[in-house]
Amino acid sequence: IGNDFHPSYTKAVKQLSEFDNVIIIDAAISARRLIDKVDATISVPFTSTALISLDANKPSSYFDSISALDPNTSTARNLPVLDNVAALSNWIQELPSRANLGDIQDS
Prior knowledge:
The chain contains four helices and three strands; from the N terminus they run H-H-E-H-E-E-H. By secondary structure, it is α/β, with parallel strands linked by helices. Helix 3 (about 50-55) links the parallel strand 1 and strand 2. The radius of gyration is 15 Å and the shape is globular.
């Protein structure tokens, strides 16, 4: 991580990178390139990554971790708005396969 980011963000990313199940993706890699490599996406409501996923024909959902949104809002564009871990877990389990992020930065 370069000097373009706030120090607290840089610290948080470094701490997260210590987990085996976290892959830090270089900021220069576009969202579309990343989405092309995964099986599905879970987005923060209502960010463009979900729309990019739809364009790429990838399953996509929004995760509303504080249950603040109406899941039937037109802003969701008919995508599921999941508001609890159980719903998120069920959505993931219903996917046909798991994403493989291992080669994203190498391609």
